[in-house]
Amino acid sequence: METLASTHKLIVKQKFEPLEALANAAANAVDMSALGNLGEVANKYQVLADDGGDRYRVVEESEYCGLTGRCCCNPNHELKLHVYAPAEVSSSEEAMVFDRPCKCGQCCACFNICRQEMIAYDRTRNQVGYIRQPFMGGGFSPKLQVMERDGEDPYATIESTAFCCIAGLCCDHTFVVKDPTGNEIGRIVKQKPSNFQELATELASDADVFAIEFQKDLAVDKKATLFGALYLIDYMFFENEGEGKVDLVNQQCSFKCCDLYCCGCTCPCHCSCGGGGGDEDGGGE
């Protein structure tokens, strides 16, 4: 974690999982999207420094089955994210751990069971920070509060620059980090695809690319907690971003444009084409 002291910017790339993409494609082809969860695998991330050098490896630890596992509750399942030093330093040297409990996601953030949270630990498992979704989730713009311990006053807020709309592949999505006086101390950006390969990857899977910037003189513990917030944002909003479906049964193609957001609730907005006519009901989502 000490390497964060001199860090100003990190690039986070989620690993593409072929099995997961194949399971989603098969589920979409037979119009049974729930089957896609059977291929859900634990996320893995590569973290690069601004100069392109390896900084960390991040590996998700979570149950596949069970009431809070990936198969049933993705992307709101219980998980731990283990942050390791790069392989050339040590393949097992743990730098940080981020712990997120299972929540009822994509619903109004008015009860604790629906308010997302994450705890950040250092390598010795001492808590260094806590991230929580506030009551009603920030209204029309997604917001998170960052503090040292649950119940303390936040020392920073993370708020999306978007209004009433989040996710989508057509543009960058920026979350600004501000201290209690309103000064910007960092930002988290989910980057749009920069080429056709990245676009195809995001349409077929959950793999995304993020960037995070810190104020240079920010305390290491605070940088580590904001680093954890990046992953919480990924699971909250970007696991199904840009989801593309080719439904062979109904001869229909659809594409997720974005999520409409209000008080913690998200509602996917799709564009579709094709589909059968006849007497069956049609329509968008």
Keywords:
disordered C terminus, single chain, 15% helix, 4 helices, alpha+beta, 285 residues, twelve-stranded antiparallel barrel
Commentary on this structure:
- By secondary structure, the protein is an alpha+beta fold.
- 15% of the residues lie in helices and 35% in strands.
- The chain has helices at residues 18-29, 70-73, 196-204, 220-238, and strands spanning 9-14, 44-49, 54-61, 79-84, 94-100, 117-122, 127-132, 143-147, 156-160, 165-166, 173-178, 184-190, 209-214, 244-247, 252-262, 265-274.
- The strands form two sheets. Strands 1-2-3-4-5-6-7-8-9-11-12-13 form a twelve-stranded antiparallel beta barrel.
- The chain is globular and about 55 Å long.
- Residues 277-283 have low confidence and may be disordered.
Quick description:
The protein has 285 residues and is of the alpha+beta class. 15% of the residues lie in helices and 35% in strands.
- Biggest sheet strand order reads 1-2-3-4-5-6-7-8-9-11-12-13
- Secondary structural class: alpha+beta
Radius of gyration: 19 Å
* Range of strand content: 35-45%
Distance between the termini: 44 Å
Note the total helix count: 4
Biggest sheet: strands, sense, closure? Answer: 12 strands, antiparallel, barrel
User: What's the overall average pLDDT, rounded?
Assistant: 86
